[in-house]
Each structure stands twice: as structure tokens, then as C-alpha cells.
Design goal:
Layout: E1 4-11, E2 15-17, H1 35-46, E3 48-54, H2 55-62, H3 73-81, E4 84-87, E5 102-105, H4 109-118, E6 123-127, H5 130-138, E7 144-150, E8 158-159, E9 170-177, E10 183-189
Parallel strand pairs: 1-6, 1-7, 3-4, 3-6, 4-5
Antiparallel strand pairs: 2-8, 7-10, 9-10
Helix pairs in contact: 1-3
Length: about 190
Amino acid sequence: MRKLILQEFMSIDGFCADRDKTTGFFDGTYNNLEKDVDANQGPLMDSIDLILMGTNTYRLFAGFWPTATGEDPKITTAMNSIPKIVFSSSLKEVVWGSHGNISLVADDAIAYIRSLKKGVGKNMVMWGSLSLAQSLLQASLFDEIQLIVAPVAIGNGYRLFPEQDKLFPLRLTGSKTFSEGTMLHTYEPIN
């Protein structure tokens, strides 16, 4: 059975996007968070064969990765070559530059992803896509949650775990600190 991994970047005070729904606090817009965080992505990229995302993350990624320069070439190659699925009821089509390895699903994401998990292949990963991630968390579909915590507080924004949710127990399975203080915490949901 394939694993579904959620990897989210967040501020130390628990926000995955700022008030304006941007990610400037960790993506290099305001801070140059370490290249060793990017280098750490190599093993993750080797372990997956499918990238899942929602509408907003698709728009952000599709506007960057197909023509990315100056990034780690291994990550850029993986981001452009690994097949992708966008879950959206508002988009009519999706494209990924000239790569053509992307599809759009407007159906029930939970049922669709349950069937993907039963299939054969490597693991799957989801980045960003907070609304979709919250739905999948509530449906207990993630097998692993990786939180990359930036050493910055932003005060307000959008959280992965909404305040109205009840206790969501996790088991820490790994932790790593990078040179400038960013931390990667890996968890397994306790269902």
C-alpha cells in the first residue's frame, strides 16, 4: 500500500501561510532559509512517484517550477518529471509548462485518494493545499506528516490544524535541525 505524505512549511507560531495567503516568510521572499533544507528534499523526491495538490498550490507551483532556474537541479527535475494531480472544482484545465504530466480531478478527493493509496507505486506527497490537507487529515488519509518549521513568528495567517478541530494525536518519528535553525519534524498520525 502506498503512503501519503503531507509536507508543510510553517512559522514557529504555527502558520503555513501569512495573512495575505503568501509564503514569503519561508520561500526566500523575505528570508533566505537554508539551502540545506532544499538538499534534504532529495530523499523525499526519490521516494515518491505522484504529487497531489489543490488549486492555490497548483497556481503557485505551475507559475514557478516549469521554468525554474537557480534551484537545485535534482529538485527541479523531479518537480517537473513526477506526475501530478490537481484536485479542484473551480479549474477547467491544468498545464505544467511543456511537461504534460499533470491531470485535473474534480471528483471527491477523499474517495479518489483512498483508491490511489490501494494502488501500486511509490509514495505520494502533498505540499501546501491547506483546505484539501485539512479534509484529508479529518479523513485520516495521511500516513506521515512532515512539518518544516521556520525560525520566524508571523503573528497571524492560515493554520494547518484549525482551532475548531479536536485533539489530533501524533507520534514523533524523526527530527532534524538545519544550520540556520529551521527544523524538520516527522510525525505519524495516531488513528
